[in-house]
Amino acid sequence: MERIADFVLAHRKRVILFWLVLMFAGFAATNQTINRLTTDFSVPGQPGFDTATKINQALGHPSDNGPSLPVITVPAGQTVDTRKADIKAVLGQGPCRSSGLAGR
């Protein structure tokens, strides 16, 4: 730390100039960065909203909150068919029950 402090004190003007250049570069990049940030809400008639509605209809889920698709992972060497009873029990408990997946 002492070496850094000695360097900074010995080269004050260069260090100040470096930080000023860095600050102005940050100011210049701010405008481009802000323009790249977008807030996109799916509204009726837009492709994302229409797709979510179709998925909800296919799953029997009467909601505009977007689809919820559970991902099921079974232990190595087993299949979903061998764990069907466990899967039905889990899907029948929570919010997935309303999606109609419990009976499939």
Give a verbal description of the structure.
There is one protein chain. The chain has 104 residues and is an all-alpha fold. Among the domains are: 2-36; 70-104, no CATH class. Helix content is 53%, strand content 0%. It contains four helices and no strands. The chain has helices at 2-10, 12-36, 47-59, 84-91. The chain is elongated and about 75 Å long. The protein starts with a helix and ends in a 13-residue tail after the last helix.
- Would you count the extended β strands for me? 0
Portion in beta strands: under 5%
Instruction: State the order of secondary-structure elements, H for helix, E for strand.
Output: HHHH
Q: Outline the low-pLDDT stretches.
A: 96-104
Provide mean pLDDT, rounded: 79
The residue fraction in helices comes out at 40-55%
Q: Notable features of this structure?
A:
elongated; 104 residues; mainly alpha; single chain
Furnish the topology, listing elements before pairings:
Elements: H1 2-10, H2 12-36, H3 47-59, H4 84-91
